[in-house]
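Morning, I've got a small favour to ask if you have a moment. I'm working through a protein record and want to make sense of it properly. The fold is given in discrete form, as structure tokens running alongside the sequence. Can you walk me through what the tokens say about the fold? Thanks so much in advance, here it is:
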Amino acid sequence: MLFQSKLKIHFCWFACRIPVARFRSSAKGGLILQSVSSNVYENLAVEDWIHDHMNLEDKNVLFLWRNLPAVVIGRHQNPWKECNLPLMREKGLCLARRRSGGGTVYHDLGNINLTFFTLKKKYDRMENLNLIISALKALQPELDVQATERYDLLLDGKFKISGTAAKLGRTVAYHHCTLLCNANCTLLPSVLQSPHHGIQSNATPSIPSLVKNLLEADSSLTCEVVMDAVVSEYAVQHNIKPHVHIIDPSDESLFPGICQKRRELCTWEWIYGKTPKFGVLTSFQIFYEHSLIDVKLSVDVKNGYIEACTMELPDHWLPQGLCNELENCLLGSKFCPSETALLVSNLRRTCAQNGDLDTKWNMLCDKLVAIM
């Protein structure tokens, strides 16, 4: 793979591919893995697999990975509230939901992802962040990087270069964080700004922050250089050789059952259906014959599907019966523009009207699809 080749030439240490059975018995003290994949679902599946299957009694694990452009939301977040889904569809960006908590992050190949696996009793996020700081200081002693009480890393006291999330299992825990080296900081704020209005939800909200790339502070701090430094510091602190084990997340012989984990992470039921129940209470206007018609819309969404839908608009403008037809056709459907558009298109054919009534009916349908 092209991405694999680009990464390998920057590592001066011995990179080996070891069978899965030896993951459990080798590398006492610590193990360093790096993914050749740039697929967000494959890399998240590796995290799941290590958490579920690897014995960490006598070792810790550091997993390094990078993704093509994607947005990753936390386990308990609402994607309609956290992301600009229309823009992501336009740009071809993937949306993924991870199994850890925390806020929404933007990934691309200019962003490093670091996952620290330990036994739950050894879990220490601040220790991991201090390791990253030590690695960066080794590269550039003058760099002003500090960890916050929220376990973020700030550059120059105000620019966020790393965010943190974690999953604590029964006996195993992992802490993962991002590290902005040369990410697209123009696209980042755009895709993390939702265009949806009126969402009422108890889902975990993200906290907006000013961001900056490490490359802006020092042009030598590329992803490859920073990853090398983190690996070196991890090896020193865990008293192990800095061997980086290059892994292929799609290799079932290495990770039995991992393809099923990846498939689960790609489903609507996981990405959207795991969203905590929420409501949308909004309004919009339709311009018709030099007048503005006010429409109020209320939608309840559970497991990503529309559970209730009501619209209020002037009775003289459109018969209530037609509004009821539109409301009823959406019940039980996915809360997404493509499904809404299909249902509305079918309804138009079966409930075609005459003259002005047909024009009004179509305008209302178009507007409803546009705001989904």
User: Anything to note?
Assistant: The first strand starts at residue 29 and ends at 35. The longest helix spans residues 355-371. The chain has a mean pLDDT of 90.
